[in-house]
Amino acid sequence: TDLDAARQQLEEFIPHVKNISDSSIRKMAGRDLTRFKQFKKQGIAVKFGRFTQKENNQIRKNVEEFLSLTGLDSAEKLLFTSRYPEDKDTIHRLKTQHHFCEKISEGIPRPWRLIYYRARKMFDPNNYKGRYTNEEKEKLKKYQALHGNDWKKISELMSRSNLSVAMKFSEIKSAINYGPWTKEETQKLMHAVQEVMRRRLEAENASSLSSLEQSNRDLWIDREKLCQQLPWTEIEAKVGSRYWRQCKQKWNSILTSKMSKGQQLYRGTKGLQAKINLIKRLYETNAEDTSEVNWEELSNAIGDVPRAYVQAKFYKLKVSCVPFWQRKTFSEITEYLFEKKLPELEEKL
């Protein structure tokens, strides 16, 4: 396939295609381009971000149908073939013969690679094993010393998922401070985020480089960029004394404080009113899944705060107010909050 032509065609569906490597472009040209064009004919746009419940169900259906078609007895064999060396050749042959790539991505307007990673996360029996014991933490430190950051190898030794062992090691690799943030730590965090933002801006717009050089202190970035996902493990390394999740939470609290001009948003009658507004707005969206909610827009229901702040408040509401919330769909949770919790909050207000 002509690489430039493939990149040009994919650009219609993937705006950030210029940042994708040549090898990935070749794979996408083979696996995705025809699918994307078919979805376009149906008026369906290519999606990114969090998978919806409907898409998760479609992945389950696709996997189950492929297992039925091939006679394989488990999704783990299909998606983690390297764990079954004796059956590896047979499984690879069946995958090729029955067009695994096409079947697994059927009905889902996303790049094949993302669908495949999502399926692996959903069907990995090592992915839902609860908290690490002290013994497991010691093993993890020992294996990392032996094998470095070969998380695939370590995940096999630990019987945990790749992502799980990588993130857990990130938490325990050094003496982590769990107390209040010091002024020095906060400054390190601010500088680390600024450095990441600056690098992104320079990559996105080379012509802005001169203006950035003129001003080392003031970096003007729109709100959307401030609130988007950042490389937290990189930021963690720069801060040194906190792990990535602490850095993320602290950054969101800094954004919230700046945007709300330091007001205490979730206190007293203001707090009650904010919860009421949030429940009402979520119910009115009629969304079937969290990924269908415009959290940026919803942030106005509470105040001028980051979307992560609103999402955190919704999480606290459902955990504290909705019984067996883990077994309920997003729409069932919002319905319960609207019918049961809202009258109680309004009466309290």
In short:
By secondary structure, the chain is mainly α. 64% of the residues lie in helices and 0% in strands.
Q: Can you give a write-up of this model?
A:
- The protein is mainly α and 349 residues long.
- The protein folds into four domains: 1-123, no CATH class; 134-173, Orthogonal Bundle (Arc Repressor Mutant, subunit A), CATH 1.10.10; 183-209 and 216-260, no CATH class; 268-347.
- 64% of the residues lie in helices and 0% in strands.
- The chain is built from 20 helices and no strands.
- The chain is globular and about 65 Å long.
- This is TTF1 factor.
- It comes from Atrichornis clamosus.
- One of its GO terms (biological process) is termination of RNA polymerase I transcription.
Jot down its keywords.
single chain, 349 residues, mainly alpha, Arc Repressor Mutant, subunit A, 4 domains
Which series of helices and strands comes N to C?
HHHHHHHHHHHHHHHHHHHH
Annotation field: number of helices: 20
Shape: globular
Radius of gyration: 23 Å
Largest sheet: none
Stretches where pLDDT falls below 50 for ≥5 residues?
A: 207-220
Mean pLDDT metric: 79
How much of the sequence lies in strands comes to under 5%
Q: What structural category characterises the helix and strand content?
A: mainly alpha
Integer tally of domains = 4
User: How helix-rich are the residues, as a percent range?
Assistant: 55-70%
Distance between the termini: 64 Å
- The total count of strands amounts to 0
InterPro entries: Homeodomain-like_sf (IPR009057), SANT/Myb (IPR001005), TTF1-like (IPR053078)
Protein name: TTF1 factor
GO cellular component, one term: nucleolus
Domain Myb-like: 124-172, 173-255
